[in-house]
Amino acid sequence: GLDQDLGSYLTHLAVSERGFDPTQSLDEVPNRPLTEADPESGLRDFDFDAVELLNHVSMEAYRRTRADWFAWLLQGERRTGTANSDSHSAGHPVGLPRNYVAYSGERGSLFDRTEFLAAVRAGRTTGSSGPWLRVRLNEAGPGETHRGQDGILDIRVARAKWVPVDEIRVYVNGQPIARRDWNETGHWRIALN
After folding, report:
1. pTM for the full model?
2. Among residues 165, 164, 187, 191, which one has the least CA distance to residue 178?
3. DSSP character for 110?
4. Interval 27-50: pLDDT, tens
5. Could you tell me which of 164, 170, 171, 173 has the C-alpha nearest to residue 185?
6. 142: closest CA among 101, 104, 107?
7. Which residues sit opposite 175 in a β-bridge?
8. Phi, psi of 100 (to 5 degrees)
């Protein structure tokens, strides 16, 4: 989990007793132990499919974990970002935030767990603390890859009237490239080049 004192993710995995440092490469200390293979199993501490980006309502924890996640992505370590709705105390609401998974398989007793997990591993997830965002870059949606230098980013926002949406931010390669004040339902198209 997130070490509140050190402010970094994966602290409990690093044998150097320091958490992941998003300003360093995966080959550098303190990050290197996370990518070294176990001599017996061949597995790395970094061999997992998803990371909890948004948990409860702490924006500070989200920002720290997001910095780690961006660093992994920029170094070729793709992990699915999730938004989990567990509760840490009686004062925390249950069911917020939530994950939405683009799963087209059967429901109910015919639910296909393997297909569902494949969708999560592929990154076909959307996390939300209230508003619903549908984001596509040309034809690519969550978990899909867009190739090329240009594209049209289409962001559509839907929300209940009591769910605030103050602004939308767009990041490319971990850096903010666009920001827009937002107070309505609708969509925003941005040309990326």
Report:
1. 0.83
2. 191
3. G
4. 998 888 888 899 999 999 889 999
5. 164
6. 101
7. 172
8. -120, 125
CA dist., res. 2 & res. 150, Å (int): 36
Residue-wise burial string across 116-151, b where 16 or more C-beta atoms lie within 10 A, e elsewhere: beebbebbbbbbbeeeebebbbeeebbbeeeeeeeb
Q: What percent of the chain has pLDDT over 70?
A: 87
The whole-number pLDDT of residue 61 equals 80
Q: Which H helix or E strand runs over 82?
A: strand 80-84
* 3-state percent helix, strand, coil for the chain, nearest multiple of 5: 15, 30, 55
Q: What is the pLDDT of residue 141?
A: 93
CB 34: neighbour CB atoms within 10 A? 20
